Amino acid sequence: METHEHQAAPDLGDSGEALRITEAAAEKAKAAMQREGLSNAALRVSVVGGGCSGFQYNLGFDTQQKDDDTVIEQFGLRVLVDEVSLPYLRGTIIDYVSGLHGAGFKFVNPNASRTCGCGSSFAA
């Protein structure tokens, strides 16, 4: 089932970054890294083929920065984006939300022509 969310993005100021992360999302990612003993890791954000709508977001921890990575540092968190994923993620805001249906990372992506109900896939 396709859904279109028209929710206002969190105000993060004018950071000029290719990708932005809210303070809530940064804190959750840092806490998860600490639990896993990955104090020197970064959050890797990428886009892979698949999901309900054609592309799927992928989050993970990475201790190796690649030569073609774009590095973004916000709220004490280092975020890595590879050069293939960057055009799909430019302008995206990653937030952390909790509600009746659970909690998790939410992507507000201006490049998505449509999203699906799972919230983790999109079409460009």
How does this model look, in words?
By secondary structure, this protein is mainly beta. It has helices at residues 23-35, 86-89; strands at residues 2-3, 19-21, 42-50, 54-62, 70-74, 77-81, 92-99, 102-108, 114-116, 121-123. A seven-stranded mixed β-sheet has the order 1-9-10-4-3-6-5. Strands 2-7-8 form a three-stranded mixed β-sheet. A hairpin with a 3-residue loop joins β3 (42-50) and β4. It is globular, with a radius of gyration of 14 Å.
Percent of residues in beta strands: 35-45%
Secondary structure class reads mainly beta
Question: How many strands appear in the DSSP assignment?
Answer: 10
| Morphology call | globular
* Cα-based radius of gyration, to the nearest Å: 14 Å
Q: What is the chain-wise order of helices and strands? A: EEHEEEEHEEEE
Mean pLDDT: 79
Give the proportion of residues in helices: 10-25%
**Low-confidence parts, pLDDT < 50 over ≥5 residues?**
1-16
- Helices, by number, come to 2
Query: How far apart lie the N and C ends?
Result: 17 Å
Largest sheet: 7 strands, mixed
Instruction: Give the neighbour order of strands across the main sheet.
Output: 1-9-10-4-3-6-5
Can you give keywords for this protein?
single chain; 124 residues; mainly beta; seven-stranded mixed β-sheet; three-stranded mixed β-sheet
Summarize the structure.
14% of the residues lie in helices and 44% in strands.
Spell out the blueprint of helices and strands.
Blueprint: E1 2-3, E2 19-21, H1 23-35, E3 42-50, E4 54-62, E5 70-74, E6 77-81, H2 86-89, E7 92-99, E8 102-108, E9 114-116, E10 121-123
Parallel strand pairs: 2-7, 3-6
Antiparallel strand pairs: 1-9, 3-4, 4-10, 5-6, 7-8, 9-10
